[in-house]
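Notes, Module 5: Reading structure tokens.

Key idea: the token line is not a picture. It is a compressed description, and you learn to read it the same way you learned to read a sequence, by spotting repeated patterns. We will look at two proteins. The first is printed below with its tokens.
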Amino acid sequence: MTAIRPATVINDTEHVEVQAELGARWLMQPAAFEALTGWTLKPEGMCRGDVCAPIYHRNKVIVDGLVDLQEAASIIGLSAVTDPERGVAALAASAPSRAQEMITLQAPDFTLSNLAGEPVSLHDFNRRKVLLLAWSSW
């Protein structure tokens, strides 16, 4: 058994410091997985509110009471890439989820600074149509 140590998970909006057992697999306490993803490990599977995703191969997802980040991510509709040696993982929406967002034309919320340096979020426009222009000097 490998010792639990600090590690970093990069998701769509931030870098999150977690405690994980980083051997051949990326394992973390169920409470840490819940804090990271919002999904709770229960006997019926991974649950968020009233929604539960069953775990069919429990021994692949739960190892000695710890949650395998990569295996559990696929159950809840996320993609995970882990580098246990360096203590870094990336967690994002799965390709099918992203494809669905493209079909519905619903952009994920984000916040950027305007020319005056004030934060402006997409949700500030309250479902009005928005034209985004991007430019770079390079």
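Here is the second protein, with the sequence above and the tokens below, as before.
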Amino acid sequence: MSEKKVRVRFAPSPTGGLHLGGVRTVLFNYLFAKKHKGNFVLRIEDTDQTRYVDGAEQYILDCLKWCGITPDESPVVGGQYAPYRQSERKPIYREYAEKLVAQGHAYYAFDSAEELDAKRKEVPNFQYGVATRNGLRNSLNLPLQETEKLLHDGTPHVIRIKMPEDDTINFNDMIRGHVSFETNQIDDKVLLKADGMPTYHLAVVVDDYLMKITHAFRGEEWLPSAPVHILLWEYLGWKADMPQWAHLPLILKPDGHGKLSKRDGARLGFPVYAMNWFDAKTGELTPGFRELGFLPEAFLNLLAMLGWNDGTDQEIFTLDEMIEKFSIDRISKAGAKFDFEKAKWYNAEWIKRTDAETLKVKVWEILKAKGIVIKDEAYLLKVIDVVKERCVVLPDFYQQSAYFFQQPAEYDLNAVKPKWTDAKTDFFTAFISILSAEPVDAHELEAKFKALAEEKGLKAGDVMLPFRIMLVGGKFGPHVFDIAKLLGESETIIRIEKAIEAFTA
């Protein structure tokens, strides 16, 4: 490990919702930084103004806040390397692009969009590079005087990197090991656009250098760009300061064939964004994990396990545990298939592990939205503790706990009426007398219930299901005697009497 202070960055473009792959990149950056007592930087890469979407930057900030990941430096909190929005750093980049031109590592290209479109139609799989650049309108071919005149006249142009011919770019990836690229296969990427804005390729290198980034974690889809970036580090004289690279494996569709996309989520019925994203341009709402009822702890936990493990069978990790155990050599090179059923399992496990006090506000909001009035906070906490083992996502708390606050509006009569007898009516009438006597705990109440059934010549199982339906309306809920005890003797008696009327009608 270098003696330099570890500095990593997440640099999203504010062009839409935050895919779970993006959040995983955030998480791995954050875990690595905190593991090594370093800094996690959030930098907004808004150089592509044509794709900029209002509200997207705030959405990214809100997602990180929900996840409990706080950047050490960002457009909001600032830092010694501000500004952290590339659009606010625009004057910085031209200097470096012009320096590359002066060194012969880049050139001015004056080709219009129409000219390039015509070339693409003329040449199959056309790319602007080693094989084609000599026949195009750029400063490599034009006389110096003509180039200077075009620049003086303000002719629209871009600056492109000049990829070397017949060379090989080699580098070491922290996940993939040795990687190499043939330069003849790589096009001359645009570094500075006609509007003076840098492309990702130039901006990411300049900013990583100026912000002293030591490690660059990004998705493997950026791997083909790595040789361009490595050359820029070298050409600008910064190779000694180049960050170590780590290209993260893709998150794959559930069948393992291809990268998981928003369309896959829509087709298969699960979210792929951290939070709901509303696109004001299209009017489209893309659902998120938060609104579906996932806890942020569960969301981070499931993302961490998509491509990483600590070498043991442990699956449930707090953020602090992940920081403690995280290591790059435990990240897989292969893509990780997304399994929504497993994702729900993580959430269910986290709901079980979360105390009622922590869940209280979320559950209260869910019940309130359904018209349930909660007058006793202590009672709500008891209800949460009783039902949380049965909840997979937060909205499940409504079905699993509504009957604690309001009597069943209807009963699962098909499960009771066909087998209802006068003997059962007699049993529950006698059981009401037991409830009216001295209060007992749930365990004792169960013992008295079973003893009464035996006394009346009934099997306990034959009256247990009707008792549950009397209290909750259906065949669900926690241990029925825990329900009765929490409801209290008076309310339990009222529900038995009301249900008998319905069962015997």
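Summary for the second protein:
- The mean pLDDT is 96.
- The two ends are 78 Å apart (CA to CA).
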